[in-house]
């Protein structure tokens, strides 16, 4: 059982205090800047209390039949309402697996109007998405500290040309901004990255610190094939992620069945424990992650304010508004360069220029506001003083680290199975020695007969 995922009482009190202060800071200091420059229309909806109060979430992304739903069942050690597992594309919806004393399924339309849940902004994706969204409530001790989001299997080949009816990558972006971990699963037998999977991975850019990669079903190949599969996966990821750093890949077989090839048993156990330690840190670092996300949001809001005010400044007062608007959108890169030089802003802090141009097409530039320095000063003061105080309130991870060892026992790491394996190995060793003794006797017997035959011939 994943009992190590439960929060410590003292640490939970600290987290609640920090999150309470975060709510006040956001509403009083950052939200006025966002509303004044229409930040919510361009980037992310307004943050509500459930966004701050939500438990750490894990988002599972991968092509169909890579073991996403099986991975959830492996963590929970039980089934959940609405579970479907099979070799074909089975999970056709987003399923938020969350804790509740009463087990059941909450459909998407009812879920987005629940004020206690953080899913209200998802209503903008329409009924086509909400009909493919649900919450599965499970009374599991694992879910007392985390929540897990299962996603539809990403399609490949001809199937990916069929329109889902909603903005799939847009939904992934929404979840990626709010979850604590994004787990990409790959099948050891299916390493090809389809076009839709590539777009999905690209939609996760900007959240690289949250991404973890799993090479699942690794026990289905022997150790020599596994080496080649791992190399092929790293080559494919290098083309998609386009980063100089090597991505961390966890290798294993995350289900409750015996290993087919157990030559890499020790490797799988070590990789599994590394992954579980990473998941174990999520409840402890929940407040720190929300603090980090708020800082990123504040930096983006400041840059957005500079962009909007610069566009408003360049607009004519009377004639030629439409032509000037088209010209500004076309030359948005030059506006970025000018803001970067004047305000000494890093290029990495600017939003994606193509997405910004798409949204600006539907905006009325005459309703944009000019720059108000006092709103920016309030946000700067928040980052310099208020956030610094909150960071001091969060205890260091070394002080809150749980000393008890990992208690999750996999099917191939349990003591009973280890004893059985040792008995089998001992029996195999005895049998091997007995066979060697028989071979030696046969060789001696054959040599003796040969000597007798040799003497008779002479």
Task: Please provide a brief summary of the model.
This protein is α/β, with parallel strands linked by helices. The chain has helices at 9-36, 39-42, 49-53, 68-76, 108-111, 126-130, 168-178, 195-203, 223-241, 265-284, 286-314, 321-330, 332-343, 353-360, 373-393, 397-400, 415-457, and strands spanning 57-62, 94-99, 104-107, 133-138, 147-150, 181-187, 211-216, 249-251. Strands 3-4-2-5-1-6-7-8 form an 8-stranded mixed β-sheet, with helices on both faces.
Structure, explained:
- There is one protein chain.
- The chain is built from 17 helices and eight strands.
- The protein has 458 residues and is α/β, with parallel strands linked by helices.
- It has an eight-stranded mixed beta sheet, with helices on both faces.
- Helix 9 links the parallel strand 7 (211-216) and strand 8.
- Helix 1 (9-36) packs parallel to helix 11, helix 1 (9-36) runs antiparallel to helix 15 and helix 11 runs antiparallel to helix 15.
- Number of helices in the DSSP assignment: 17
Radius of gyration: 29 Å
Oligomerization status of the protein chains: single chain
Q: How many beta-strand elements?
A: 8
| Order of adjacent strands in the largest pleated sheet | 3-4-2-5-1-6-7-8
Order of helices and strands: HHHEHEEHHEEHEHEHEHHHHHHHH
Q: How many angstroms separate the termini?
A: 78 Å
Could you give a short account of the major beta sheet?
8 strands, mixed
Mean pLDDT: 81
The fraction of residues in strands falls at 5-15%
Uncertain segments of ≥5 residues (pLDDT<50)? Answer: 397-417
């Amino acid at each position: 059982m994943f009992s190590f995922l439960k929060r410590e009482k003292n640490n939970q009190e600290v987290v609640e205090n920090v999150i309470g202060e975060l709510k006040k800071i956001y509403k009083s200091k950052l939200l006025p800047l966002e509303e004044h420059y229409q930040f919510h229309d361009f980037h992310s909806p307004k943050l509500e209390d459930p966004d701050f109060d939500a438990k750490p979430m894990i988002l599972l992304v991968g092509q169909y039949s890579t073991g996403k739903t099986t991975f959830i069942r492996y963590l929970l050690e039980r089934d959940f309402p609405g579970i479907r597992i099979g070799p074909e594309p089975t999970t056709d919806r987003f399923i938020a697996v969350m804790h509740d004393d009463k087990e059941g399924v909450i459909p998407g339309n009812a879920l987005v109007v629940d004020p206690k849940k953080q899913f209200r902004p998802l209503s903008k994706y329409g009924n086509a998405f909400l009909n493919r969204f649900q919450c599965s409530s499970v009374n599991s001790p694992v879910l007392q500290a985390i929540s897990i989001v299962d996603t539809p299997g990403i399609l490949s080949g001809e199937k990916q040309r069929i329109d889902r009816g909603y903005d799939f990558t847009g939904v992934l972006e929404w979840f990626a901004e709010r979850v604590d971990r994004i787990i990409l699963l790959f099948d050891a037998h299916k390493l090809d990255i389809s076009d839709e999977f590539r777009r999905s991975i690209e939609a996760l850019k900007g959240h690289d610190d949250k991404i973890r990669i799993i090479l699942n079903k690794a026990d289905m190949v022997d150790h020599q094939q596994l080496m080649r599969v791992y190399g092929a996966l790293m080559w494919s990821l290098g083309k998609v992620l386009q980063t100089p750093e090597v991505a961390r890949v966890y290798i294993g077989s995350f289900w409750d069945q015996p290993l087919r090839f157990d030559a890499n048993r020790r490797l799988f156990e070590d990789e599994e424990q590394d992954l579980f330690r990473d998941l174990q840190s999520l409840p402890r670092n929940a407040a720190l992650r929300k603090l980090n996300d708020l800082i990123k949001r504040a930096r983006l809001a400041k840059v957005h304010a500079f962009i909007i005010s610069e566009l408003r400044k360049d607009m004519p007062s009377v004639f030629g508004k439409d032509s000037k608007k088209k010209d500004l959108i076309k030359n948005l890169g030059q506006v970025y360069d000018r803001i970067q030089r004047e305000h000494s802003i890093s290029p990495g802090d600017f939003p994606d220029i193509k997405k910004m141009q798409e949204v600006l097409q539907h905006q009325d530039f005459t309703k944009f506001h000019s720059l108000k320095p006092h709103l920016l000063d309030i946000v700067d003061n928040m980052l310099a003083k208020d956030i610094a105080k909150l960071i001091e309130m969060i205890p260091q991870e070394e002080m809150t680290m749980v000393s008890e060892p990992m208690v999750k026992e996999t099917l191939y790491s349990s003591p009973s199975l280890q004893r059985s394996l040792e008995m089998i190995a001992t029996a195999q060793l005895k049998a091997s020695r007995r066979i060697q003794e028989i071979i030696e006797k046969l060789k001696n017997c054959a040599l003796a007969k040969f000597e007798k035959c040799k003497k008779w011939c002479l």
